[in-house]
Amino acid sequence: xxxxxxxxxxxxxxxxxxxxxxxxxxxxxxxxxxxxxxxxxxxxxxxxxxxxxxxxxxxxxxxxxxxxxxxxxxxxxxxxxxxxxxxxxxxxxxxxxxxxxxxxxxxxxxxxxxxxxxxxxxxxxxxx
Length: 128
Prior knowledge:
mainly alpha
């Protein structure tokens, strides 16, 4: 049992198997909105903090406007989905850019010389 679950259980005064279902969307959403990449753990604590802050503001704002709980969940889910799709598009653009750079280097004769040089090649790899 982690310390956070022990504190959460102590705060509520009871333990149930479905205790964390209501915060699951918030946890995943805060990580994704906080720019933690879904394709490899790149992120910062500060980013996740601002993700939590943003989702808290959205949650409280919608509740103060008198929206139903299902509307609040749908809005937070939409924001999380938007952040996840944006992260996937960003990841694909970065990946495509690296592949294009590699193709340009392979077709450029001076770059081929550098790539085949033993000083720029990891030990054990032979030039192609």
